[in-house]
Specification:
- This protein is about 60% helix and about 10% strand.
- The chain is α/β, with parallel strands linked by helices.
- Among the domains are: about 5-180, 2-Layer Sandwich (Alpha-Beta Plaits), CATH 3.30.70.1230; about 225-340, Rossmann fold (3-Layer(aba) Sandwich), CATH 3.40.50; about 355-470, Serine Threonine Protein Phosphatase 5, Tetratricopeptide repeat.
- The longest helix has 21 residues, at about 25-45.
Length: about 775
């Protein structure tokens, strides 16, 4: 018997995607595929000095003496597989010590290699950190960091990457069936995103290690719906039950890695069974209880129901005096989190609150959330003012008050409230309150069109949410910052933040957030000109089913679907989604989202050449933005109106609106990525009328813009008489058309601007 040999080797695992289904459909075809795989691939392995260890079902185990040979061979294998029908391979490579015995290999590193392969995209190659460290020294290799795979009983540090160069597809984490470790928000960012890891990232790693301990199911992110407390007292006491429930949801959601259904979503479902609710909301646990106020005494009951085991896992009753009333929420939050075995941050101080003030705050929230008109909103603001007057330490009331002002378009008033509140939250050591204020300030400055200040405040909130382990808020801040960088035209930074937010959404298993983020990432890639990658993200977002939506959420997703179709140049589908969004968002009076849906409807009609209709929508969007006092939005709508007049040949009116647009957008301080749109339209109109324009300004804007779409390139060609812009525009149009369905592509190529680009190119080439 041959003695086992211990050695260092590059270990390769492969797997045929869809082989199980192929076997079920045609067993003979599946068997022939295995023979073909052996006959075609084994010589390749031998050519690179590899060993064909064995076949395990449809998978292969290979070893190589060097990483270089392993990687080069795997590249050839994937190249060869493209020519073989039904041979779609996932490949994983790891470097480690093996014990070679007869015709087999064993050892921990063999098990690690087997866990690397599932992180490969079909037709791609996934690698461990040890392989990555060797190949990144080669200038022709690029990679993407994916995370740390769950490896039970493995003591070594293992990270997984995918190779993104050499024509290989990038791994999309939401398509991967195996799990990653939630390793905090450092994510080894210095490797994956080019950003140096911070001390905060280190501490968050520690936080998340603790947060993952003791879950009922190690593979499952805790998920819960906290139903509104059932008010058993007088009807006028309903605000107690509603307000406590609303705050409780917020407190539990901020605790760490836990997914909590929103109150609006719960209320929208109405009176259905706990199991039906869990199914609609995609949660495991249901918390429900009763509240009964009798004179100065509150009687409270709560139970936690596990829909998976169909058992009540916890129940309790309390009786609280009026003076203890503000502490009820804390008691409930702590009990729920303990029963779910979620470690939560206890750094924020317990601040004694005035019961009367807290009552006014709850009345304000209830009045505002159940408002029927602006008068109710103003009454709610008055109640919040009263709460603050009675207890200046009630930071929640100040954040809420600022939120109402922002929602009603009075951003200056919101800033007036949040400024002093910030100093107070810092003095009290209220970290969650401080972060909420930073986020609120970020939102108000976004509404005012100041993206730099907006990003700055959200970065401050981000630091605190990292420190405190507020996973849900961390996602929202990363997403918001990423979106802002997208709007500024800094697309690489946008992808950095958005991809980090996507990882968090996937760890939370929040399908709404995953879907939304996929859309935006796809949009960014499209703006970069990476149409194939963009289509992948956009279609994945479109395919992801989301249930349990409120009416308002349905409207928002119609909006996002419409924007996605617009970005994919599927204009007819975009119009259908956007019209649905317009109707719903107008009914629910969500003006900030409604203005987006109206604006994008205008953009879509402009793209198909329906300029009169587009003009109508841009004018409606302008009115809504003026109502919100959104200077950035006003500037963009003026551009839309001006460009429609340009397209209809009314150049005098076009200049009037385009000049106003440029002035406002410059005052707001937007990036060159936004200025290029009205400026090129304005200068092109000047040129048509025989007027002079500043070519140097155009060159400055172009040189400071990362990328721009085909309609901008055709304008630049007409302005500067530079054929390269026309060539770029033509290439962009053709590339887009290749990724569209044939009937949609045909329509796209016949819309005014693509058609003009093609005809112009054919005329000069």
């Amino acid at each position: 018997m041959t003695e086992p040999t211990r050695k260092l080797a590059a270990i390769v695992f492969t797997d045929i995607v869809g082989f199980t289904q192929l076997t079920a459909d045609d067993q003979q075809n599946a068997s022939d595929l295995l023979d073909l795989q052996r006959n075609e691939l084994k010589p390749l392995v031998e050519n690179y000095g590899g060993k064909w260890i064995k076949e395990v079902g449809d998978g292969l185990i290979l070893t190589f003496d060097t990483i270089t040979n392993a990687v080069q061979c795997c590249l050839k294998i994937q190249e060869k597989a493209k020519d073989i029908e039904n041979l779609f391979l996932r490949i994983g490579i790891h470097l480690g010590e093996i014990l070679e015995k007869e015709n087999d290999i064993i050892g921990d590193d063999v098990n690690v290699a087997a866990r690397i392969e599932p992180f490969s995209a079909p037709g791609g190659i996934a690698i461990s950190n040890k392989v990555h460290d060797a190949i990144v020294r080669e200038s022709d290799f690029t990679t993407k960091y994916l995370g740390k795979p769950k490896l039970k009983g493995v003591g070594q540090k293992v990270e997984v990457y995918c190779i993104t160069s050499h024509g290989l597809p990038e791994t999309i984490l939401s398509d991967v069936s195996v799990k990653l470790e939630p390793e905090g928000f450092d994510w080894n960012v210095k490797n994956s995103l080019g950003v140096a890891a911070s001390m905060i990232g280190f501490f968050m790693l520690i936080n998340f290690m603790f947060l993952r301990i003791g879950f009922a199911d190690e593979e499952e992110t805790p998920s819960i719906a906290i139903l509104p407390l059932d008010n058993k007292g007088a009807a006028d006491d309903e605000f107690y039950a509603y307000g406590i429930s609303s705050d409780l949801i917020s407190d539990v959601a901020s605790a760490g890695l836990i997914r909590v259904a929103s109150l609006n979503r719960i209320e929208d479902l109405g009176d259905i069974s706990a199991n039906e609710m869990a199914d609609q909301l995609d949660v495991r646990y249901i918390a429900e209880g009763t509240l009964w106020k009798r004179d100065s005494i509150f009687q409270l009951s709560m139970e936690l129901y596990d829909t998976q085991t169909e058992k009540v896992v916890w129940s309790e009753r309390w009786q609280k005096n009026w003076n203890e009333f503000p502490s009820i929420r804390d008691v409930l939050a702590e009990n729920i989190l303990e029963k779910l075995k979620v470690d939560y941050n206890t750094a924020s101080p317990k601040i004694a609150l005035n019961p009367d003030a807290y009552e006014f705050y709850l009345k304000a929230k209830h009045k505002y959330e159940k408002r029927e008109d602006k008068d109710d909103a103003k009454i709610a603001q008055g109640l919040a003012d009263k709460a603050i007057e009675l207890d200046d330490n009630l930071i929640r009331a100040k954040v809420f008050l600022a939120y109402t002002y922002t929602a009603m378009g009075d951003n200056d008033k919101a800033i007036e409230v949040l400024g002093p509140a910030m100093e107070q939250a810092q003095r009290l050591g209220d970290k969650q309150g401080e972060a909420a204020i930073f986020s609120g300030l970020g939102t108000t400055y976004m509404n005012k069109g100041n993206l730099d200040l907006m990003i700055g405040y959200h970065e401050k909130a981000l630091d605190i949410y990292q420190e405190t382990g507020n996973t849900e808020k961390l996602y929202h801040n990363l997403y918001t910052i990423g979106y802002a960088h997208k709007d500024k035209g800094d697309l690489d930074k946008a992808l950095d933040y958005l991809k980090r937010s996507l990882v968090i959404a996937e760890n939370l298993d929040n399908k709404r957030s995953i879907k939304t983020t996929l859309y935006v990432i796809g949009n960014v890639y499209r703006n970069k000109g990476d149409i194939d990658i963009a289509q992948d993200f956009l279609k994945r977002g479109q395919a992801l089913a989301v249930t349990g939506l409120t009416k308002e959420e349905t409207g928002v997703f119609h909006l996002r679907d419409g924007i996605m179709c617009y970005e994919m140049c599927e204009y007819e589908n975009a119009i259908e989604f956007l019209n649905n969004a317009n109707k719903i968002l107008e009914e629910v009076a969500n003006i900030p989202k409604h203005v987006y849906s109206v604006y994008f409807t205008g953009l879509t009609y402009n793209s198909i050449g329906s300029y009169d209709t587009a003009l109508d929508y841009f004018e409606r969007a302008l009115a809504l933005n003026e109502q919100l006092d959104d200077r950035f939005g006003i500037g963009m709508c003026l551009y839309g109106i001006g460009y429609q007049h340009h397209s209809m040949g009314d150049y005098d009116k076009s200049i009037e609106y385009l000049e106003k647009s440029c002035i406002i957008l410059k005052e707001v301080g937007v990036g060159y990525q936004w200025l290029i749109q009205p400026t090129t339209a304005l200068f092109l109109t000047y040129k048509y009328l025989g007027r002079e324009f500043d070519k140097e300004e155009i060159h400055t804007i172009v040189n400071n813009s990362e990328s721009f779409e085909f309609y901008i390139n055709i304008r630049l060609y007409k302005l500067l008489d530079n054929r390269s812009y026309l060539e770029t525009a033509y290439s962009q149009v053709q590339k887009i058309a290749r990724y569209l369905e044939p009937d949609i592509a045909k329509k796209f190529l016949n819309y005014p601007i693509p058609k003009q680009i093609i005809q112009e190119w054919e005329g000069v080439s």
